[in-house]
Design goal:
Chain lengths: ~100, ~425
């Protein structure tokens, strides 16, 4: 399975992501700039903010109440399809997902 | 030069504050990382504990809060359940309880809100440096490192400047409660039973409680909305506001944790500039401001450890950890781990992908004030680099007597102005 990150500088990174791994963990493993994940996926830092490509937002699902609150404290402004990527876990339904890293 | 070339014999007593009084025993941490990464550590004053010293292990365990709880205390010292309840802040909670408070305060400390303080920070830095640098030779901890976070604390909380020295002294007494220079109630040297229900086992905690309550009342009466406290006191989405006891505990935490950590990060950075002469010219090129603050903070690692408590039996590196036993994450050791950092014993201000854990990265208790700390460090060193041609040691520096807070309590330096 794989995921694609569109970076603010226009570059694109596509990487293999094992099923069950979060997209924050995958981004950190591949040194995707701008996805940091300081709290290890505990919903405490909002540094793994990504904007899910609208074509994938339905499959990505809705944020939980805590995630929704933390999306209000991200560095870049929140977008309608913003998510914290520590809460997105790779599975068949997300194979090929496209994420935009906010600038 | 204990930091660059540690001198301990590799078998220091990690439970002894004295073992950290000449700089942290980094050879001991290196040996444990190599030979005994889950180390059963003797503690004469209470129950023994497990020491976790590898970067990867701390990251792996820190997120597992159902297995390793913060809600039984976060320092090595033992405490009863009633003491825990009386003293705890949201650092000492888990799960949904922690998140409820975290979300209440996260906005106020978020990167965009903190970024609005940059000019305020810069003005304070300019004032401090223009006052101090012409002295030529001075104690950089007292004259620079201590000043910036203290004055910023006042701006953040909207407290009168006249109150700041008192507040900072109380915060020092709470956090550096094992160093006789900072408290008359040295934790491991006398009985503090009288104060055991107070935050940090200290009468200073009780005094800060009273101050916080008065401050809240004064602000409510005058409609003062300066600083970030109004953001914290705003009703949450469900209409609830932070209860008074929670506010008082949070206030203590701000005074205690938001102060000396940044102070000792700045001091360690100044010490690094004085001992690695290539660093100042590198800062002056203007090319490393994105990476320098985190490297300075990695180098400093003022919060040396935090403790957790096992909630059930488990095995780790072949050791049997029992429910109720204390497990200590030595973040300082993680930040010197050769497998996580190239040349960890050198300051590299251009270090890329710096996955340091000075903010307790990897778990839900990651430092709330990390954006403020980074910003204060960056702006201070930006303004310093503009003004000086050279900074050199001017005598012996002194470390805090503590295995919990790592810092230079005095740092004599001589500067040459541009």
């Amino acid at each position: 399975m794989h995921a694609t990150w569109h970076l603010p500088n226009g570059k694109t990174v596509t990487a293999e992501v094992k099923s069950g791994l979060t997209l924050m963990e995958a981004a950190v493993a591949h040194n995707i700039p701008g996805v940091i994940g300081e709290c290890g996926g505990s919903l405490s830092c909002a540094t793994c903010h990504v904007v899910v490509d609208p074509t994938w937002s339905t499959r990505a699902g809705q944020p939980s109440a805590f995630e929704n609150d933390m999306l209000d404290v991200t560095d870049a402004d929140r977008q309608p399809t913003s998510r914290l990527s520590c809460q997105l876990r790779m599975a068949e339904a997300l194979d090929g997902i496209i994420l935009h890293v906010p600038g | 030069m204990t930091l660059w070339t540690p001198t301990d014999d590799g078998h220091a007593d990690l439970s002894s504050h004295d073992a950290f009084a000449q700089g942290a025993p980094l050879n001991t941490f290196a040996r444990l990382r190599r030979d005994d990464p889950m180390h059963w550590t003797e503690y004469a004053q209470g129950e023994n504990y497990w020491s976790v010293t590898r970067h990867a292990d701390i990251l792996e365990l820190n997120r597992q809060t159902d297995l390793l709880s913060s809600a039984r205390g976060i320092r090595i010292e033992d405490q009863s359940y009633e003491e825990y309840l009386a003293r705890r802040t949201f650092q000492e909670t888990d799960g949904a309880e922690h998140m409820a408070t975290r979300i209440r305060v996260a906005k106020a400390f978020s990167r965009p809100v903190i970024a609005q303080f940059e000019q305020v920070i810069r003005d304070i830095c300019v004032d401090i440096l223009d006052h101090t640098l012409p002295k030529g030779t001075f104690d950089a901890t007292a004259e620079i490192a201590r000043q910036l976070p203290m004055r910023m604390l006042g701006r953040i909380m909207g407290t009168p400047d006249a109150d700041l020295p008192w507040l900072v002294a109380k915060g020092d007494a709470l956090i550096a409660n094992t160093d006789p220079d900072f408290t008359t109630h040295v934790l491991d040297k006398m009985t503090t039973d009288e104060f055991r229900m107070m935050p940090f086992n200290s009468p200073a905690g009780a005094e800060l409680f009273v101050y916080a309550k008065d401050l809240m009342a004064r602000k409510a009466a005058s409609g003062d909305r300066s600083g970030i406290l109004p953001l914290i006191m705003e009703p949450a989405a469900d209409g609830s506001v932070m209860p008074e006891h929670e506010f008082r505990n949070f206030f203590c935490l701000l005074v205690a944790a938001g102060n000396d950590t940044t102070r000792y990060s700045i001091a360690a950075g100044l010490q690094a500039l004085a001992h690695q002469p290539e660093l100042l010219p590198l800062l002056q090129t203007g090319t490393v401001w994105d990476t320098a603050p985190d490297e300075i903070i990695r180098w400093a690692t003022p919060a040396i450890y935090f403790r957790r408590t096992a909630t059930r039996d488990f095995e780790y590196h072949g050791k049997q950890i029992k429910a109720g036993q204390k497990v200590v994450y030595w973040f300082l050791s993680g930040n010197r781990d050769e497998t996580a950092f190239d040349n960890p014993m050198r300051v590299n201000l251009a270090r890329q992908n710096n996955r340091h854990m000075a903010f307790g990265q990897g778990g839900p208790h990651v430092c709330l004030g990390m954006w403020l700390a980074r910003l204060e460090v960056r702006v201070l060193f930006e303004e310093l680099a503009k003004r000086i041609a050279k900074i050199e040691p001017a005598g012996d520096h002194k470390y805090l007597r503590s295995n919990f807070v790592g810092g230079l309590k005095s740092l004599p330096v001589t500067v040459t102005l541009n």
